[in-house]
Amino acid sequence: MMRKFYYTCSLLLLLFALPGLASAKLQIVATLPALAQLAQAVCGEDGEVRTLAKIAQDPHFVPPKPTLARHLADADILFIVGLGLESGWLPPLIQLSRNETIRPGGRGHVVGSDYIDVIGGDVKVDRSMGDVHPDGNPHWWLDPLRVIAVAKALAVKMGEVDPVHAAAYIERADQFAGKVNEQVKQWQLQTSATSPVVSYHDSYRYFVDRFGIKVVDFVEPKPGVEPSTNHLDRLVASLKQGAATSLWLEPYHDTETARRVCERGGIPCLIMPDASEGEGGDGYIALIDMLVKRSQQ
Hints:
The structure is a single chain. 45% of the residues lie in helices and 10% in strands. By secondary structure, the protein is α/β, with parallel strands linked by helices. It folds into two domains: 23-183, Rossmann fold, CATH 3.40.50; 187-294, Rossmann fold. A four-stranded parallel beta sheet has the order 2-1-3-4, covered by helices on one side. The radius of gyration is 22 Å and the shape is globular.
Protein backbone atom coordinates (compact mmCIF):
# COMPACT_ATOMS: atom_id res chain seq x y z
CA MET A 1 0.00 0.00 0.00
CA MET A 2 2.81 2.38 0.97
CA ARG A 3 4.67 1.56 -2.24
CA LYS A 4 1.57 2.46 -4.30
CA PHE A 5 1.28 5.76 -2.40
CA TYR A 6 4.89 6.67 -3.15
CA TYR A 7 4.41 5.72 -6.81
CA THR A 8 1.33 7.98 -7.09
CA CYS A 9 3.13 10.91 -5.45
CA SER A 10 6.14 10.48 -7.72
CA LEU A 11 3.89 10.48 -10.80
CA LEU A 12 2.13 13.67 -9.68
CA LEU A 13 5.46 15.39 -9.04
CA LEU A 14 6.61 14.40 -12.53
CA LEU A 15 3.46 15.84 -14.08
CA PHE A 16 3.88 19.14 -12.25
CA ALA A 17 7.55 19.26 -13.24
CA LEU A 18 6.63 18.73 -16.89
CA PRO A 19 3.71 21.06 -17.67
CA GLY A 20 3.50 19.80 -21.21
CA LEU A 21 2.54 16.37 -19.89
CA ALA A 22 0.07 17.74 -17.37
CA SER A 23 -1.85 20.17 -19.57
CA ALA A 24 -0.53 21.02 -23.03
CA LYS A 25 -1.86 24.40 -24.10
CA LEU A 26 -3.37 25.04 -27.49
CA GLN A 27 -0.72 26.55 -29.78
CA ILE A 28 -2.07 29.30 -32.02
CA VAL A 29 -0.21 31.36 -34.61
CA ALA A 30 -1.91 34.47 -36.01
CA THR A 31 -0.64 36.26 -39.08
CA LEU A 32 -1.31 39.79 -37.78
CA PRO A 33 -1.11 41.48 -34.35
CA ALA A 34 -4.83 42.33 -34.28
CA LEU A 35 -5.68 38.70 -35.03
CA ALA A 36 -3.35 37.61 -32.24
CA GLN A 37 -5.26 39.85 -29.82
CA LEU A 38 -8.52 38.29 -30.96
CA ALA A 39 -7.11 34.78 -30.51
CA GLN A 40 -5.84 35.69 -27.02
CA ALA A 41 -9.28 36.98 -26.08
CA VAL A 42 -10.83 33.64 -27.04
CA CYS A 43 -8.23 31.14 -25.84
CA GLY A 44 -7.36 32.86 -22.56
CA GLU A 45 -5.17 30.79 -20.25
CA ASP A 46 -5.85 27.64 -22.25
CA GLY A 47 -3.71 28.66 -25.21
CA GLU A 48 -0.53 30.39 -26.28
CA VAL A 49 -0.54 32.82 -29.20
CA ARG A 50 2.25 33.99 -31.48
CA THR A 51 2.05 36.45 -34.33
CA LEU A 52 3.99 36.53 -37.60
CA ALA A 53 3.72 40.19 -38.64
CA LYS A 54 4.84 43.06 -36.41
CA ILE A 55 3.05 46.27 -35.50
CA ALA A 56 3.52 48.94 -38.20
CA GLN A 57 4.58 46.27 -40.73
CA ASP A 58 2.76 46.16 -44.06
CA PRO A 59 0.66 42.97 -43.83
CA HIS A 60 0.91 42.49 -47.58
CA PHE A 61 4.71 42.17 -47.46
CA VAL A 62 6.04 40.26 -44.44
CA PRO A 63 9.56 38.85 -44.97
CA PRO A 64 9.16 35.03 -44.89
CA LYS A 65 11.99 34.36 -42.45
CA PRO A 66 12.79 30.76 -41.41
CA THR A 67 12.15 31.70 -37.76
CA LEU A 68 8.51 32.29 -38.66
CA ALA A 69 8.29 28.82 -40.17
CA ARG A 70 9.54 27.42 -36.86
CA HIS A 71 6.63 29.15 -35.10
CA LEU A 72 4.29 27.35 -37.47
CA ALA A 73 5.87 23.93 -37.01
CA ASP A 74 4.22 23.33 -33.63
CA ALA A 75 1.00 25.24 -34.24
CA ASP A 76 -2.36 23.59 -33.64
CA ILE A 77 -4.14 26.51 -35.32
CA LEU A 78 -3.03 29.03 -37.94
CA PHE A 79 -5.39 32.01 -37.90
CA ILE A 80 -5.23 34.18 -41.03
CA VAL A 81 -7.07 37.13 -42.57
CA GLY A 82 -7.69 35.54 -45.96
CA LEU A 83 -8.83 37.17 -49.22
CA GLY A 84 -5.28 36.99 -50.53
CA LEU A 85 -3.79 39.39 -47.99
CA GLU A 86 -1.05 36.94 -46.93
CA SER A 87 -0.77 35.08 -50.24
CA GLY A 88 2.54 36.71 -51.17
CA TRP A 89 4.46 35.50 -48.12
CA LEU A 90 2.57 32.88 -46.08
CA PRO A 91 2.47 29.80 -48.40
CA PRO A 92 6.26 29.24 -48.38
CA LEU A 93 6.28 29.46 -44.58
CA ILE A 94 3.55 26.83 -44.33
CA GLN A 95 5.53 24.66 -46.72
CA LEU A 96 8.71 25.02 -44.64
CA SER A 97 6.87 24.23 -41.42
CA ARG A 98 5.92 20.72 -42.62
CA ASN A 99 2.84 21.00 -40.44
CA GLU A 100 -0.03 19.28 -42.23
CA THR A 101 -2.59 20.46 -39.66
CA ILE A 102 -2.32 24.12 -40.66
CA ARG A 103 -2.26 23.71 -44.42
CA PRO A 104 -5.29 25.03 -46.35
CA GLY A 105 -8.04 22.50 -45.82
CA GLY A 106 -6.50 21.23 -42.60
CA ARG A 107 -8.50 21.38 -39.38
CA GLY A 108 -6.09 23.94 -37.93
CA HIS A 109 -6.24 26.35 -40.88
CA VAL A 110 -8.70 29.09 -39.86
CA VAL A 111 -9.54 31.87 -42.34
CA GLY A 112 -11.29 34.80 -40.67
CA SER A 113 -12.85 36.13 -43.87
CA ASP A 114 -14.80 32.89 -44.28
CA TYR A 115 -17.13 34.02 -41.49
CA ILE A 116 -18.03 37.55 -42.56
CA ASP A 117 -19.87 39.48 -45.23
CA VAL A 118 -16.99 40.61 -47.47
CA ILE A 119 -16.94 44.07 -49.02
CA GLY A 120 -16.10 44.08 -52.72
CA GLY A 121 -16.35 40.35 -53.22
CA ASP A 122 -19.09 40.75 -55.83
CA VAL A 123 -17.07 43.09 -58.08
CA LYS A 124 -15.51 41.73 -61.24
CA VAL A 125 -11.78 42.50 -61.08
CA ASP A 126 -9.15 42.88 -63.78
CA ARG A 127 -5.57 44.17 -63.85
CA SER A 128 -6.66 47.60 -65.11
CA MET A 129 -8.05 48.23 -61.60
CA GLY A 130 -4.61 48.01 -59.98
CA ASP A 131 -3.59 45.63 -57.20
CA VAL A 132 -7.16 44.83 -56.17
CA HIS A 133 -7.87 41.70 -54.14
CA PRO A 134 -10.16 39.71 -56.45
CA ASP A 135 -12.15 38.11 -53.62
CA GLY A 136 -12.82 41.37 -51.78
CA ASN A 137 -11.26 43.90 -49.44
CA PRO A 138 -9.27 41.96 -46.79
CA HIS A 139 -9.08 44.60 -44.02
CA TRP A 140 -12.11 43.26 -42.15
CA TRP A 141 -10.47 43.30 -38.70
CA LEU A 142 -11.03 47.08 -38.52
CA ASP A 143 -14.77 46.49 -38.21
CA PRO A 144 -15.46 45.45 -34.59
CA LEU A 145 -18.82 43.86 -35.39
CA ARG A 146 -17.36 41.60 -38.05
CA VAL A 147 -14.61 40.75 -35.58
CA ILE A 148 -17.26 39.52 -33.15
CA ALA A 149 -18.52 37.06 -35.78
CA VAL A 150 -14.99 35.84 -36.40
CA ALA A 151 -14.31 35.49 -32.65
CA LYS A 152 -17.31 33.20 -32.24
CA ALA A 153 -16.28 31.08 -35.23
CA LEU A 154 -12.72 30.91 -33.91
CA ALA A 155 -14.01 29.69 -30.54
CA VAL A 156 -15.79 26.82 -32.27
CA LYS A 157 -12.62 25.92 -34.19
CA MET A 158 -10.55 25.98 -31.02
CA GLY A 159 -13.06 23.70 -29.38
CA GLU A 160 -12.82 21.21 -32.25
CA VAL A 161 -9.05 21.02 -31.82
CA ASP A 162 -9.21 21.10 -28.01
CA PRO A 163 -12.57 19.65 -26.89
CA VAL A 164 -11.60 19.70 -23.21
CA HIS A 165 -11.80 23.52 -23.15
CA ALA A 166 -14.49 23.96 -25.83
CA ALA A 167 -17.03 25.50 -23.45
CA ALA A 168 -14.44 27.94 -22.09
CA TYR A 169 -13.60 29.16 -25.59
CA ILE A 170 -17.26 29.80 -26.37
CA GLU A 171 -17.75 31.63 -23.07
CA ARG A 172 -14.75 33.90 -23.65
CA ALA A 173 -15.90 34.71 -27.18
CA ASP A 174 -19.29 35.70 -25.78
CA GLN A 175 -17.66 37.88 -23.13
CA PHE A 176 -15.53 39.56 -25.78
CA ALA A 177 -18.62 40.16 -27.91
CA GLY A 178 -20.39 41.81 -24.98
CA LYS A 179 -17.50 44.20 -24.35
CA VAL A 180 -17.17 45.15 -28.01
CA ASN A 181 -20.90 45.69 -28.48
CA GLU A 182 -20.93 48.13 -25.56
CA GLN A 183 -17.99 50.02 -27.01
CA VAL A 184 -19.52 50.20 -30.49
CA LYS A 185 -22.42 52.26 -29.15
CA GLN A 186 -19.99 54.84 -27.78
CA TRP A 187 -17.81 54.80 -30.90
CA GLN A 188 -20.82 55.45 -33.12
CA LEU A 189 -21.69 58.52 -31.07
CA GLN A 190 -18.12 59.79 -31.30
CA THR A 191 -17.90 59.36 -35.08
CA SER A 192 -21.40 60.57 -35.95
CA ALA A 193 -20.14 63.99 -37.08
CA THR A 194 -16.74 63.02 -38.50
CA SER A 195 -15.81 65.11 -41.55
CA PRO A 196 -14.91 63.54 -44.92
CA VAL A 197 -11.34 62.27 -45.27
CA VAL A 198 -8.82 61.25 -47.89
CA SER A 199 -7.01 57.93 -47.48
CA TYR A 200 -3.72 56.76 -48.93
CA HIS A 201 -4.85 53.17 -49.58
CA ASP A 202 -8.27 51.52 -49.29
CA SER A 203 -7.35 50.02 -45.89
CA TYR A 204 -10.16 51.54 -43.83
CA ARG A 205 -13.19 50.52 -45.88
CA TYR A 206 -14.70 48.31 -43.16
CA PHE A 207 -14.01 50.89 -40.46
CA VAL A 208 -15.52 53.85 -42.33
CA ASP A 209 -18.51 51.84 -43.49
CA ARG A 210 -19.25 50.74 -39.93
CA PHE A 211 -19.05 54.27 -38.54
CA GLY A 212 -20.47 56.24 -41.46
CA ILE A 213 -17.32 58.16 -42.35
CA LYS A 214 -16.98 59.36 -45.95
CA VAL A 215 -13.74 58.79 -47.88
CA VAL A 216 -13.74 61.20 -50.81
CA ASP A 217 -10.50 60.20 -52.55
CA PHE A 218 -7.24 58.25 -52.33
CA VAL A 219 -3.61 59.21 -52.78
CA GLU A 220 -3.23 56.01 -54.80
CA PRO A 221 -5.31 56.43 -57.97
CA LYS A 222 -5.72 52.64 -57.90
CA PRO A 223 -4.66 50.19 -55.16
CA GLY A 224 -0.91 49.62 -55.28
CA VAL A 225 -0.39 52.14 -58.11
CA GLU A 226 1.87 55.13 -57.55
CA PRO A 227 0.09 58.45 -58.08
CA SER A 228 0.93 60.56 -61.10
CA THR A 229 1.66 64.28 -60.87
CA ASN A 230 -1.68 65.07 -62.51
CA HIS A 231 -3.56 62.92 -59.99
CA LEU A 232 -1.81 64.61 -57.06
CA ASP A 233 -2.45 68.08 -58.49
CA ARG A 234 -6.17 67.31 -58.81
CA LEU A 235 -6.25 65.90 -55.29
CA VAL A 236 -4.51 68.95 -53.80
CA ALA A 237 -6.86 71.30 -55.68
CA SER A 238 -9.88 69.51 -54.21
CA LEU A 239 -8.39 69.68 -50.71
CA LYS A 240 -7.86 73.42 -51.05
CA GLN A 241 -11.56 73.69 -51.81
CA GLY A 242 -12.44 71.85 -48.58
CA ALA A 243 -13.16 68.36 -49.93
CA ALA A 244 -11.66 66.71 -46.81
CA THR A 245 -10.25 67.68 -43.44
CA SER A 246 -7.50 65.07 -43.04
CA LEU A 247 -5.49 62.43 -44.86
CA TRP A 248 -5.36 58.98 -43.26
CA LEU A 249 -2.11 57.03 -43.52
CA GLU A 250 -1.02 53.57 -42.49
CA PRO A 251 2.40 53.70 -40.79
CA TYR A 252 3.95 51.93 -43.78
CA HIS A 253 2.49 54.54 -46.19
CA ASP A 254 3.83 57.55 -44.31
CA THR A 255 5.79 58.75 -47.34
CA GLU A 256 7.18 62.01 -48.62
CA THR A 257 4.47 62.04 -51.29
CA ALA A 258 1.70 61.80 -48.70
CA ARG A 259 3.26 64.50 -46.53
CA ARG A 260 3.56 66.80 -49.52
CA VAL A 261 -0.13 66.33 -50.32
CA CYS A 262 -1.03 67.32 -46.76
CA GLU A 263 1.24 70.35 -46.83
CA ARG A 264 -0.01 71.60 -50.19
CA GLY A 265 -3.65 70.82 -49.40
CA GLY A 266 -3.54 72.45 -45.97
CA ILE A 267 -4.76 69.42 -44.01
CA PRO A 268 -3.13 67.20 -41.35
CA CYS A 269 -1.74 63.75 -42.08
CA LEU A 270 -3.10 61.31 -39.48
CA ILE A 271 -1.35 58.01 -38.84
CA MET A 272 -4.17 55.46 -38.49
CA PRO A 273 -2.57 52.12 -37.54
CA ASP A 274 -4.14 48.75 -38.24
CA ALA A 275 -2.43 47.26 -35.17
CA SER A 276 -1.61 48.42 -31.67
CA GLU A 277 0.17 47.37 -28.50
CA GLY A 278 -1.75 45.37 -25.92
CA GLU A 279 -3.02 41.86 -25.47
CA GLY A 280 -6.35 40.11 -25.76
CA GLY A 281 -9.70 41.81 -26.06
CA ASP A 282 -8.47 44.93 -24.29
CA GLY A 283 -5.68 45.31 -26.86
CA TYR A 284 -8.10 45.01 -29.76
CA ILE A 285 -10.58 47.46 -28.22
CA ALA A 286 -7.69 49.89 -27.66
CA LEU A 287 -6.89 49.73 -31.39
CA ILE A 288 -10.41 50.68 -32.48
CA ASP A 289 -10.66 53.28 -29.73
CA MET A 290 -7.44 54.88 -30.97
CA LEU A 291 -8.76 55.02 -34.55
CA VAL A 292 -12.03 56.57 -33.40
CA LYS A 293 -10.25 59.24 -31.35
CA ARG A 294 -7.80 60.08 -34.12
CA SER A 295 -10.62 60.37 -36.63
CA GLN A 296 -11.88 63.33 -34.58
CA GLN A 297 -8.65 65.34 -34.97
